[in-house]
Amino acid sequence: MKKILDCIAEVIKPAFTACGYEDSYARVTLSNRPDLCEYQCNGAMAAAKAYKKKPIDIAGEVVAKLDGSPVFSKVSAVMPGFINLCIREEYLADIMNTMEREPKFGLEEIGSQETIIVDYGGANVAKPLHVGHLRSAIIGESIKRTGRFLGYEMIGDVHLGDWGLQMGLIIEELRERKPDLPYFDQSFQGTYPQEAPFTISELEEIYPAASARSKEDETFKARAQEATFQLQNGYEPFRAVWRHIMDVSLADLKKNYGNLGVTFDLWKGESDAQRYIPELIKDLEERGLAHESQGALVVDIARETDSKELPPCIIRKSDGAALYATSDLGTIIEREKEYAPSKYIYITDKRQELHFIQVFRTAKKAGYVKEETPMVHLMFGTMNGKDGKPFKTRDGGVMRLECLVEEINSAVYERIMENRTVSCEEAKETAAIIGLAALKYGDLSNQASKDYVFDMDRFISFEGNTGPYILYTIVRIKSILSKYREQGGTVPGDARILGAVSDTEKNLMLQLVKYNEVIENSFLETAPHKICQFIYELSDVFNKFYNSTMILKEEDQERRCSYIKLITLTKGVLETCIDLLGFEAPERM
Ligand code: ARG
Questions:
Q1: Is pTM beyond 0.85 here?
Q2: b or e along 163-201 (b: 16 or more beta carbons within 10 Å of the residue's beta carbon)?
Q3: Alpha carbons 314 and 292: distance in angstroms, whole number
Q4: How far apart are the CA of 274 and the centre of ligand 1, in A?
Q5: Is 112 left (phi over 0), alpha (psi -120 to 50) or beta?
Q6: By CB atoms within 10 Å of each CB, which of 319, 349, 429, 432 scores lowest?
Q7: Which of 58, 60, 61 minimizes the C-alpha distance to 47?
Q8: Whether the CB of 161 sits within 6 Å of ligand 1
Q9: Pick from 399, 428, 398: which is nearest to 413 by CA?
């Protein structure tokens, strides 16, 4: 199904050509003056220059040709040369009926099986998930779902940080605590135990302890670095510990991400890129793309057009160690080999901006990625507390994700229990659903690149631009529909959505027709906040319609069925959108 703006443009094109003007002037936009009209065409202004005429004269000629059109209820030329357009109720109703009939409400699948890699989540193994990882997970999940809905082959990869110093720190801390483990006995000949020598809660305690120790104890730090080096060079006992860390951590990560409604197709990480690195370095050296600089191996990426000086991409440090950028390049080589994606999307915070410029430019310079393949780095801002500083726990620590989710859920739970209409059990389940919506919508409704304030009271409010408000609207529609069914209402198969009879009903339809354009743009611009804005407005116009219309008490049977179909469509669109944002609505709330 075509987008509404294009449909309307198609209708006025012939009017332009009939008057002797090119039809490219027939572009249509939403009206700037909703009090006067619904859409407008500014083409007469541009045409005036080309045809050396007064804009208002051109507008007048075009308007005359549109007289009696089945699409417009009113067309007028206004100074200095705008063409104001009002849509006929029947035309809008036709679109509603098409949306209602077609799969995905008439959304066109623009993806045609193109493969896109979405690199998001980015958790670091053995370190607890904290709110910093929250944004990446939430935004990435939504982009992946939206792309998939549009017919793209979306591959979500968590790209774990699983190859760094934290591993050496854990190994050495473990040696301190459990020196008798076979991994530390150099003469050990047997096979290593299947069972990990720690639980997830121990592991969560080991890492911070080790990290703190390394800050005070230089020799401990050096040992951890040495252990990391040995691990990276394939020392089997440490590989065995590493596998335990991975198993225990991954199970926990999967659970945590799962609770957030976030899933990945690939659970790869930096460690998977390592096997490509020796070849990669050799290639860059042999082709003269990398050169020595102060003992390190670097690739120049600066361009004349850069507004600030960009440092080269470091491929290998002077001590021979590979770096974060090297892992990312290795990962790109693997992704090209296995998936040949037509686009990459990486989602991290703003602080990694330079890193990704360096990696992308190196990948293209070396020809690992085709020049025309878009590599997008979607950078997000910080989630701040009410004090405007990065969000912390009450005692100033880093807030763990689980705790944050728990806090929201219990705040929502209390709110639900204020009314006490449901059992504790049901209230708990509902609170978890609403809490997730509050958290995700609170994040996604901001333009990703901006910082935002985590304001629990606002996020969980049932009014205003919040997740719970959207859910509340969906639940309201569900309850009207179930009441309709209880009263024995059924919609005959040939029932149709009729032309609107009130402004609020027309406004609801005018909002619904934007749906396909919003979904497409939100994906192409990697901007989930556009979906949020759309459903916020949709909820608003729906609630206004609801407040001004007797839906179930409508006497005219045909009209009542039309209302039921219209609100069912509204519910479907809202539910689809929240699914793309990564949450769902409860049955009641
Ligand atoms: N693990 C990284 C971090 O916590 C994020 C990984 C992002 N993805 C990537 N391909 N570099 O900062």
A1: yes
A2: bbbbbbbbbbbbbeeeeebebbeeeeeeebeeebbbebe
A3: 10
A4: 15
A5: left
A6: 319
A7: 58
A8: yes
A9: 428
120 Cα to the center of ligand 1, angstroms: 8
Angle at 567 between CA 533 and CA 586, to 5 degrees: 70
Instruction: Check: CB of residue 159 under 8 Å from CB of residue 270.
Output: yes
Could you read off the pLDDT of 554-577 as tens digits, one per residue?
A: 999 999 999 999 999 999 999 999
- Ligand 1 centroid from CA 197, angstroms: 27
Show Cβ contacts of residue 367 under 8 Å, excluding neighbours closer than 6 positions: none
3-class DSSP assignment, residue 150 = coil
Asked if residue 328 has its Cβ within 6 Å of ligand 1, the reply is: yes
What are φ and ψ of residue 123, in 5° steps?
A: -60, 155
155 C-alpha to center of ligand 1: Å?
A: 16
162 lines ligand 1 (CB under 6 A): no
Peptide bond into 103 cis (omega under 30): no
Q: What is the pLDDT of residues 404-457, one digit of tens each?
A: 889 999 999 999 888 777 888 999 999 999 999 999 999 999 999 999 998 899
Cα–Cα distance measured from residue 80 to residue 14, given in angstroms and rounded to the nearest whole number: 22
CA of 159 to the centre of ligand 1 (A): 7
Query: Distance between CA 326 and CA 313 in Å, rounded?
Result: 9
204 CB near ligand 1 (under 6 Å): no
For the chain, how many residues are written? 589
Per-residue burial over 461-496, b if 16 or more Cβ lie within 10 Å, else e, is bbeebbbbbbbbbbbbbbebbeebeeeeeeeeeebe
The 10s digit of each residue's pLDDT in 131-174 is 778 999 999 999 999 999 999 999 999 999 999 899 999 999 99
Question: Which region holds residue 128: left if phi is over 0, alpha if psi is between -120 and 50, else beta?
Answer: beta
- Nearest by Cα to 520 from 159, 2, 164: 2
Q: What does each C-alpha distance from 533 to 25, 278, 450, 467, 507 come to in angstroms?
A: 29, 48, 16, 11, 16
401 CA to centre of ligand 1 in angstroms: 17
Residue nearest to atom 2 of ligand 1 (CA): 122
Three-state DSSP class for residue 28: strand
Protein residue whose Cα sits closest to atom 11 of ligand 1: 328
Distance between first and last Cα of the chain: 35
State both tokens at 25: 């002037």
Provide the token pair at 459.
């996020």
